[in-house]
Amino acid sequence: MAHPLTNTLHHRLPILTSVNLSFSSISSVTSSCAFNYGPKYTEILNRGTGGYRTATRRLVIGFGASFWAQFMSMAGNVGGKSFIASARQKGAIEQVLKNVEWPEQFPFKDEDFQRFDESPDTLFYEAPRFVTHIDDPAIAALTRYYSEVFPPSNTPGVALLDMCSSWVSHFPAGYKQERVVGMGLNKEELERNPVLTEYIVQDLNVNPKLPFEDNSFDVITNVVSVDYLTKPIDVFKEMSRVLRPGGLAVISFSNRCFFTKAISIWTSTGDADHAMIVGAYFHYSGGFEPPQAVDISPNPGRSDPMYI
């Protein structure tokens, strides 16, 4: 099941594979998150409830973000050559998480996980959005990647968990397993998803505890939603717990997001930082081997970037 491009993060006791993807260019002052408003979002913004505003830039950077800028500056020089400067070159992403000397303590502060819109996520997602949040080439690239690293379709006993799921999971066409669980915030979207055999509506920012037994899944996926997690270490610890030995976690992201719902450390940094941030989640949650990053962007500079 292993693949040369797979971002593998192996469970130390026992071994698990896991994936973290990211990279493009670093920007410590300008948000790399393009605005991504689905249907009816403008209507929601105009309701005037929960402190909604139009797209005014709100920058909350805690001590962690300041430290992170210095850390990335040091980490960005490998053999005297900055990988950050060449971040848009295909293949540069693979360098981001190589031989990282992580700080002893998790470097982020509570302020780094604040958001412009702190109203309940259940309110934001109460209306279904039957749209995709990355463009077709990026979706196709992700689907191809899944086809390379997923267990073969209809493998007896294999179970998958699609976290932060919606009406589509971008799995390969016709892909099926006995158990494919979706977790998300909108019941109508999850009901529409054809690959799911069951679903759970749960706000991970309120309750990060996954309602599953230990060693329940062979694969966990999360598509362009890691930037919304306000308790990522808790969630990643739970991922480690529910993954089976040899299990695979695939965290994919782009530079598209609902800006007001993405955490401050994400909207205040660029794509290279994002790879390091997700890598930090794996590292500090424990139970995984050192994370790696892969760039599967299909048309750099011409379509949405895509990272694992």
TrEMBL record:
Pfam families: Methyltransf_11
InterPro entries cross-referenced by the UniProt entry: Methyltransf_11, SAM-dependent_MTases_sf
CDD domains in the cross-refs: AdoMet_MTases
Protein name from the UniProt record: Methyltransferase type 11 domain-containing protein
PANTHER family per UniProt: OSJNBB0011N17.9 PROTEIN, S-ADENOSYL-L-METHIONINE-DEPENDENT METHYLTRANSFERASES SUPERFAMILY PROTEIN
Transmembrane segments annotated in the record for this chain: none
GO molecular function terms listed in the Swiss-Prot or TrEMBL record: S-adenosylmethionine-dependent methyltransferase activity
Domain named Methyltransferase type: residues: 181-251
GO biological process: alkaloid metabolic process
